[in-house]
């Protein structure tokens, strides 16, 4: 007989001290009861213990591994002794760690069991026996064998009709493509014939004019062509052609559009200044209404002009030649300022004319008085 006594004491964690207790000799004795801290030697855990572990981790049964890890991480930040938080507690952290390991093993077991069930189900499905009649008729139809045979015949008829329709469709498409290619070749041949006919006609006209002597009176007859200025950035032929176009008054589209935009904005500015001068002062309600209508019309015209500027910016070849949009409010304020300047000028001119008239009147009066005095002296 041997004696073994286990005494549980709290001294820097949980330790076990072995003493003797009475155990029968036939019973096999463990060399040392390896129970470390709060971890039990047996792997059995009761349902209540698992539920308490879920409750301690604030989780529900059926949660995922990520949820378990996230919950343990958040609770460790609160209760770990080295976290430095107010709620740090070593005993509570030990309970949380035990609950974490319990829940983790429970979730792993459930996942493994579900995987085993899926594998068994797939094996069962792959090995499921099939009746011989469902292996015939290409698996088409349902019901009795005679019904399935009739359904299979109808299926073959429909499939044949679809194949015929598909063949006819492909045949028509190929025929249409061939006709299109033939028509394209015909058009190209006609173009070639037309260009050749035009070339022959031009050549005939040139020869006829030379025979008549129409080219004898040309200023540069018998002299070499005048060399144009050389530009190293482009091809000489392109440069010479551009020079010829410029000399004959040709202008690119973006230059004409730029000129049109500038003329349009100048015309709009003149019209709004003239309308403001026509209304004059003071601005009565009726005149104010007319001025509002004029401003609305100007806003619409400016919108159209800005669209034109967008088109110009797309075709202009030089980036620094692009134009910005015009602002209708600024144009109205500009017209108002021009009107005020004009009114000031008219006032100054009126004052000057009045002063000149007064001076003329004074001079006239002096002349009259001088003549009267001379007449009196002669009498």
From TrEMBL:
Pfam families: DJC28_CD (PF09350), DnaJ (PF00226). Residues 52-116 form the J domain. Residues 258-315 form a coiled coil. Keywords: Coiled coil. PROSITE patterns: DNAJ_2. This is DnaJ heat shock protein family (Hsp40) member C28. It comes from Gopherus evgoodei (Goodes thornscrub tortoise). The lineage of its organism: Eukaryota, Metazoa, Chordata, Craniata, Vertebrata.
């Amino acid at each position: 007989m041997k004696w073994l006594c286990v005494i549980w004491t709290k001294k820097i964690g949980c330790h076990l001290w072995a003493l003797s207790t009475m155990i029968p000799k036939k019973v096999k004795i463990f060399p040392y009861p390896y129970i470390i801290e709060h971890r039990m030697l047996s792997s059995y855990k009761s349902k209540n213990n698992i539920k308490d572990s879920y409750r301690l981790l604030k989780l529900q049964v059926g949660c995922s591994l990520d949820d378990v890890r996230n919950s343990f991480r958040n609770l460790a930040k609160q209760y770990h002794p080295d976290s430095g938080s107010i709620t740090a507690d070593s005993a509570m952290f030990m309970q949380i760690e035990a609950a974490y390991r319990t829940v983790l093993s429970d979730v792993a077991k459930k996942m493994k069991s579900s995987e085993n069930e899926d594998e068994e189900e797939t094996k069962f499905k792959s090995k499921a026996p099939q009746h011989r009649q469902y292996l015939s008729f290409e698996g088409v139809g349902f019901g009795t064998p005679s019904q399935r045979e009739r359904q299979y015949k109808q299926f073959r008829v429909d499939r044949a009709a679809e194949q015929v329709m598909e063949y006819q469709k492909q045949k028509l498409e190929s025929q249409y493509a061939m006709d299109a290619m033939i028509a394209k070749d015909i058009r190209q041949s006609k173009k070639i014939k037309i260009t050749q006919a035009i070339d022959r006609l031009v050549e005939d006209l040139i020869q006829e004019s030379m025979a008549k002597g129409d080219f004898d009176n040309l200023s540069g007859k018998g002299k070499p062509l005048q060399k144009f200025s050389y530009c190293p950035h482009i091809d000489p032929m392109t440069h010479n052609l551009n020079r010829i176009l410029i000399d004959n008054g040709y202008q690119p589209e973006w230059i004409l559009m730029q000129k049109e935009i500038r003329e349009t904005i100048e015309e709009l500015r003149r019209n709004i200044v003239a309308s403001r001068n026509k209304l004059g002062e003071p601005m009565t309600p009726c005149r104010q209404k007319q001025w509002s209508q004029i401003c609305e019309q100007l806003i619409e015209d400016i919108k159209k002009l800005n669209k034109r500027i967008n088109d110009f910016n797309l075709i202009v070849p030089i980036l620094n030649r692009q134009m910005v949009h015009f602002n209708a409010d600024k144009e109205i304020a500009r017209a108002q300022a021009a009107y005020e300047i004009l009114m000031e000028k008219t006032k100054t001119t009126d004052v000057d004319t009045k002063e000149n008239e007064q001076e003329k009147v004074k001079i006239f009066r002096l002349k009259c008085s001088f003549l009267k005095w001379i007449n009196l002296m002669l009498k």
